[in-house]
Amino acid sequence: MRWRGRAGSSNIEDRRGMGMGLPIGGGIGGLVLLLLFSALTGQNPADLIDSGPSEDQTVGTSGTADDPEAQFVSVVLRDTEETWGEIFRQHGEAYQPPRLVLFTQATQSACGVGQSAMGPFYCPADRKVYLDLSFFHDLATRFGAPGDFAAAYVVAHEVGHHIQTITGVSDQVMQQRQRSSERQANALSVRQELQADCYAGVWGHYAQRRGLLEPGDAEEGLQAAAAIGDDRLQRQSQGTVVPESFTHGSSEQRVEWLRRGMNAGQVEACDTFAD
Question: 63 or 225: which carries more pLDDT confidence?
Fold first, then answer.
């Protein structure tokens, strides 16, 4: 990807090295929470205490020359802002972008405690994307999906969940899931995740038009989508595949919907809920 030298987003909070932000003077409740989390994760309680100011640092284009991964994420996020800003303008609406939180090991979110082991995630309650940059290393080594665009696809997928939130799709899915069986709820989750994949592809389409992509980048993204399909992950972890327990979609499905978004470049191509 041709990302170096491009402007980055100001919608990034850098919580790396800040622990979970649990204050020492948080009272008995805070102390119990701290000790419980420490027992569950094996982390030193001192590492989870925020000994400094609670105000998050902002990562921008300047000041991150020696922090290329953070700068990369900043540039990708800025490009998603431009893409979705343009798409929303075409529909006569204003786009409100999410903030992206960089953290290490664990952090507080409005959806609960986020941990690195969970991988990147989006919290609709505070409309923030949460990312531990170590996931990019796991993506390349553990999942066999290296490359800049593979990492960018991950960010764009989480932004896709933000699009679902502000357009009301997430609320609709949540309501339907509450009225459904476990199997039906899983199927709805798959459709939601595949739509986020397609939205990531829509961003990729626009990024290519702006000259951000290089030859081979699209293949990196498709390889990443295949690497984190439910069937492949289940086969690696338990040796068997249980389709009815899928929550994100098979490798084939994830590749297909990412490709659809990249080829079409239109949100209308991403209706994964159509029968």
Answer: 225
| Tens digits of residue pLDDT in 210-238 | 999 999 988 999 999 998 898 889 888 88
Average pLDDT, the chain: 86
Q: How far apart are CA 275 and CA 273, in angstroms?
A: 6
Query: β-strand 57-58 against 12-14: which pairing, if any?
Result: antiparallel
CB 30 within 8 A of CB 116: no
Tell me which residue of 151, 149, 146, 147 sits closest to 133, measured CA to CA. 151
What is residue 22's DSSP assignment? Answer: B
27: left (phi over 0), alpha (psi -120 to 50) or beta: left
**Angle at the Cα of 160 (from 55 to 189), degrees rounded to 5?**
110
So where are the chain's domains? 12-18+56-270
Residues 39-55 have pLDDT tens digits of: 554 555 544 444 343 44
Tally of CA atoms within 13 A in the half-sphere of 219 that contains its CB: 3
259: amino acid identity, one letter: R
Q: Where are the beta strands (DSSP E) in 11-166?
A: 12-14, 57-58, 99-102, 106-109, 112-115, 121-123, 128-131
SS3 content of the chain, % helix, strand, coil (to 5): 55, 10, 35
